[in-house]
Specification:
heterodimer, A: mainly alpha, two-stranded antiparallel ribbon, 2 strands, globular, B: 509 residues, alpha/beta, 6-stranded mixed β-sheet, 20 strands
């Protein structure tokens, strides 16, 4: 214990140690998250000044304005948010069951495809309520079929669902591409369906175009939360996701649960296609899902399948995306620079989760100890 | 001679949990030291500090008389400390030699010849039996463990730490390991062994260090110690080490198995023409070398295997005395017949429980679908979880803490507690006390006896022959999937059981 003892290997306490926290107080979580936003804004400010020479405060104002400047912009943000959130909700039960459904893009597209077909061929021939019912049912079934196929193969022959669902996307894209090519004839694209009559379009509610989209997804958010947390089906999904052996031991029919859950997942994706086509785009194209089927995977995982957190994360992603394109156009910036600016904010906010779950200890003790000797 | 290891005031906390509190202990050069303590007493944490996996919050470590700081496994290696973990850290597709040199610095060109020569040298010095060219996936558990030991010796370790090495070994393999340990001691190496089995502690070690609830209690010379004195130091109070075998007057046939044959995944029969009866009010022990069909036997009764045609498993309903065939029925179908089979499987977290769920959610694993509502009923499982926590003194921060975070003994209490609470008519347990400290083990034996006295047919798959003999009314011996004998617990000796366990030679390679 005297000072002239020769110290052997690794004679110093490590400079930095990472220790997992057992729990974190609510207050601390709020502080860490707030600090992460402040840090993001500081780093971003430095980046903006150094690279673009713009006033960072003005840039932040633009990002904010992209969503909040007018009620219409806010509604647009909500419209995009619910499209993303709806797919996240659809993916939650599948992912919770550890079934890697990478096929949301295709499932959404099939739902939208079914909706578009109904609008084109049944528009004007059926009374409006019946038309909507048909659109709803066909889109849900189309999405469900698209996820049922990989689920059926997985349940019976243990095929790899990641590859299977991924490839189903391309089948859907090719199908849509084939038919839109026929329908558009000489035109460059399909164009808006029922432009004049607006048959099969979601009606305006409370003076806005997308109110119905928002209401449907809000209801789904609550329902899925309850389904996963409080129902027997939700419980079965958790058990199967954790361990198939445990599920069999508990008497759960794993095949049945797998197929049932994937039908639900695909059906909600199909419903999302219905919402996008009937409630927003009023047309169909190969990019109708717009990559949301993949972005929603991030949304679902980051929120650990809690649908209310999903809404927050979807908001963050859409808000930043809108902000990036706003600053790109206002300042004539390269789009990539705008993406970096919003990316830094996202990175800091998500990175703060690390500091909530772990703490970092710096070397200090050994020095103190020697002083006290 | 300076002590091999000296710990002064070592403290390690995880959040609010104090895993090690102010530990002061020494390990002498060239001794075999047993580290003893109940589950969760901080043994593994302390050893992980020595092997550089954890860094202590406070305290000093001296190795060979010099103060050292061990901040990574590499530091630990450099100090000549080698740890053999409970779970092996080997690359399956590599050979023994490749695993041994993995991560070691060396010349650009790999000279496997000289590596193999050095390995063979180590093996012959200590009496290991290992082929450097054998792939890890072809090895038995015992061979993998040997490889881990050779690995740390190859790296020049002078202090070896073995974390519960015998938990996965047969009695013969254990004896072989002990011989190797004595050989290493003769060679001047220091060995620290963590084990729960007191007779092993007495058989192999020079001194015993005891931890209780994160505190260091003391170190005693093995020659002055008895199983009873060690247990008392470990538990902190007087305990009785007698296992009772109460006699139950009325017995009824409850399970009847005939010609049970199950084909394993490799198309070889894992059970061959097994026939026996299990009675209410008795504990039927099942003995055998591990992997002789014990697991498949219990799973077949529970409806988790697919026996071949001609097999018969009947459940005899106590009230009506009518047999009901269980063959070809799933666990749920069995339950729907009104039969309560409780089953404590060997794989606790991978089969019996959902690791990421808390006690409360685990309590309803087998009963969640009760009732017509689409919602799960959570108040009853919560109450049950509180009851189990109270009665079996499960140590957990709360009934919603994921069971994965509990120590092995507490996990087992949760599982056994749930299975008993189902008020079963048949209770099957596989290695119910594996990895458990002595206090918890006795609590489990007591619970099994209670069930037996209530008229439950208990089937107990065990590995400790002394316990099987003391606890069970009858013992069925399995060898390579076949029944080699059914004997009375009170009348059989360990040697006789051992012979029955190895009766069929060459039946399973």
């Amino acid at each position: 214990m005297n000072n002239d003892v020769k110290k052997l290997a690794g004679s110093k306490e490590p400079l930095v140690r990472i220790v997992k926290k057992s729990s974190t107080a609510m207050k601390q979580k709020v502080i860490v998250r707030a600090a992460s936003i402040v840090l993001a804004l500081i780093i971003d400010a430095a980046f903006i000044v150094l690279v673009t020479g713009l006033n960072p405060l003005a840039v932040y104002r633009e990002i904010f304005k992209a969503t909040f400047e007018t009620p219409l912009r806010f509604m647009w943000m909500l419209r995009d948010l619910v499209a993303l959130l709806c797919i996240g909700i659809a993916l939650a039960p599948a992912f919770k069951m550890r079934f890697w459904n990478i096929g949301a893009e295709g499932q959404v597209l099939m739902g939208g495809f079914a909706t578009a077909i109904c609008m084109m061929y049944l528009g004007g021939k059926l009374p409006t309520p019946l038309l909507f019912l048909t659109m709803f049912l066909t889109s849900v079934i189309a999405g469900a079929v698209w996820s049922f196929i990989p689920a059926f193969f997985k349940a019976n022959w243990n095929t790899n669902e990641t590859l299977f669902t991924l490839m189903m996307n391309y089948v859907a894209i090719q199908l849509v591409s084939y038919y839109t090519n026929i329908w558009r004839g000489q035109a460059s694209s399909l164009g808006t369906i029922n432009m004049g009559t607006k048959i099969g379009w979601f009606p305006k509610l409370f003076g806005h175009d997308f109110t119905l989209n928002i209401i449907i997804v809000a209801v789904l958010t609550v329902l899925m939360y309850i389904y996963l947390k409080y129902t027997k089906h939700g419980y079965e999904i958790s058990v199967v996701g954790e361990s198939e052996k445990t599920a069999k031991y508990a008497g759960i029919n794993v095949k049945k649960v797998t197929i049932r859950t994937l039908i639900l997942s695909g059906a909600i994706c199909g419903l999302c296609g219905f919402i996008i086509v009937a409630g927003n785009k009023h047309t169909i194209a190969t990019n109708t899902a717009g990559g949301n089927g993949f972005t929603a995977i991030i949304v679902a995982w980051l929120s650990k399948f809690n649908t209310f957190f999903m809404a927050l994360i979807a908001f963050l992603l859409v808000f930043l995306e809108k902000g990036a394109s706003q600053i790109a156009s206002t300042y004539g910036l390269n789009e990539y620079i705008a993406d970096i600016i919003s990316g830094i904010i996202l990175f800091c906010i998500l990175g703060s989760e690390f500091f909530i779950n772990y703490k970092i200890l710096f070397r200090h003790k050994s020095e103190n100890k020697e002083e006290t000797k | 001679m300076p002590d091999a290891i000296k710990l002064v005031g070592v403290t390690k906390t995880f959040g609010k949990i104090i895993a090690n509190n102010n530990i002061n202990m020494t390990v002498r050069q060239g001794e075999i030291l047993s580290l003893l303590g109940e589950n969760g007493s901080g043994k593994t944490t302390l050893m992980n500090i020595l092997s550089g996996i954890y860094y202590p919050d406070e305290g000093q470590i001296f190795v060979g008389g010099n103060e050292v700081t061990i901040s990574s496994p590499k530091d630990s290696f450099d100090l000549g400390i080698g740890m053999i973990h409970q779970h092996f850290k080997l690359v399956d597709v590599f050979t023994a030699a490749e695993n041994i040199i993995l991560g070691l610095p060396g010349k650009q060109k790999l000279d496997m010849k000289s590596v193999e020569k050095k390995i063979t040298e180590i093996c012959s010095r200590y009496g290991f039996d290992i082929d450097p060219k054998m792939k890890v996936y072809e090895m038995t558990v015992s061979q993998k463990q040997t490889l881990e030991i050779v690995k740390v010796l190859y790296r020049g370790a002078n202090i070896l730490i073995l974390d519960e090495p015998t938990a996965v070994l047969t009695p013969q393999e254990t004896e072989k390991l002990f011989n190797v340990m004595r050989e290493m001691k003769r060679d001047g190496k220091t060995v620290i062994i963590i084990t729960h089995k007191l007779h092993e502690v007495l058989a192999v070690s020079d001194r015993v260090a005891i931890l209780r609830k994160g505190e260091y209690i003391g170190t005693v010379e093995t020659k002055d110690a008895t199983e009873l004195s060690l247990t008392e130091m470990m538990v902190g109070k007087k305990v009785s080490l007698d296992i009772e075998r109460p006699v139950v007057g009325e017995k009824h046939k409850r399970i009847s198995v005939e010609n049970l044959t199950v084909i394993g995944p490799e198309d070889v029969p894992v059970l061959k023409n097994v026939s026996f009866d299990a009675y209410s009010g008795e504990i039927l022990g099942i003995a055998g070398i591990s992997g002789c069909g014990q697991k498949e036997l219990l799973e077949a009764i529970a409806g988790l295997q697919h026996p071949v045609e001609g097999s018969r498993i009947d459940y005899i309903e106590p009230r009506t005395d009518t047999p009901e065939s269980l063959i070809g029925k799933t666990p749920r179908e069995i339950k729907e017949l009104g039969i309560t089979l409780s089953f404590v499987p060997e794989d606790r977290l991978g089969m019996g429980l959902v690791a990421s769920m808390g006690m409360a959610d685990n309590m309803m694993l087998k009963s969640y679908e009760k009732g017509k509502s689409i919602f799960v009923e959570k108040t009853e499982p919560k109450k049950l979880a509180e009851d189990v926590k109270e009665e079996l003194s499960v140590s957990t921060p709360g009934i919603n803490t994921p069971v994965r975070r509990l120590s092995g003994g507490n996990v087992q209490k949760v599982l056994v507690g749930r299975e008993i609470a189902a008020a079963p008519s048949v209770l099957m347990t596989a290695y119910a006390v594996r990895g458990l400290d002595i206090n918890t083990s006795y609590m489990i034996y007591h619970l099994l006896n209670e069930q037996k006295e209530k008229g439950v047919a208990v089937i107990y798959v065990g590995e400790d022959l002394d316990v099987l003999i003391d606890l069970c009314d009858r013992i069925l011996v399995l060898c390579a999937g076949q029944v080699t004998g059914i004997v009375n617990g009170g009348e059989v000796t360990k040697e006789q059981l051992g012979l029955l366990m190895t009766k069929i030679s060459g039946g399973k390679e």
